[in-house]
Amino acid sequence: MAKGKVGKTVGSLGDYLKEQRVGARLSLRQLADQAGVSNPYLSQIERGLRKPSAEVLQQIAKALRISAEQLYIRAGILSPDDGVGGSVELAILSDTGLTERQKQSLLDVYASFLALNAADGADDATPAGAENDAEGTAPITTEIDPDSDNRVTNEG
């Protein structure tokens, strides 16, 4: 069932890309050259047969002079419901120090945390860690003593 959703997302991405390319009066070959991807690969993206990476989408967006964020949303990388505009996701996607696999892993972990917090928020309105403060226990902090390079633990 999830595969059908991905196919539908990619298909709508492909339709959107083709629409933008035709509107920009670019041939498939011209856009492929400008985006730095192969002509067959771009064709497969437009036909919904391939799901491009965030990096490829960014290159295509630059060549088309359109918002990369819109392509990320259409590709299912970003959610339009992110409220803040997906600033965490955009930061991950724009980080040149990460590989595409690392970016996708971080996005998956972040999405799972959001889903977990949404589920927890529905069950309990108490912030995490508030139980300890309510019982009178102080948080434990660990600091590094700059003079000795030893860790100092404060309890209370």
Automatic annotation (TrEMBL):
Gene3D superfamilies: lambda repressor-like DNA-binding domains. Residues 17-71 form the HTH cro/C1-type domain. InterPro entries: Cro/C1-type_HTH (IPR001387), Lambda_DNA-bd_dom_sf (IPR010982), TransReg_Diox_bact_type (IPR050807). Pfam families: HTH_3. Keywords: DNA-binding. The keyword DNA-binding applies. Residues 121-156 are annotated as: Disordered. It comes from the Bacteria. Residues 121-130 have a biased composition (Low complexity). This is Transcriptional regulator. It comes from Nocardioides aromaticivorans. The lineage of its organism: Bacteria, Bacillati, Actinomycetota, Actinomycetes, Propionibacteriales.
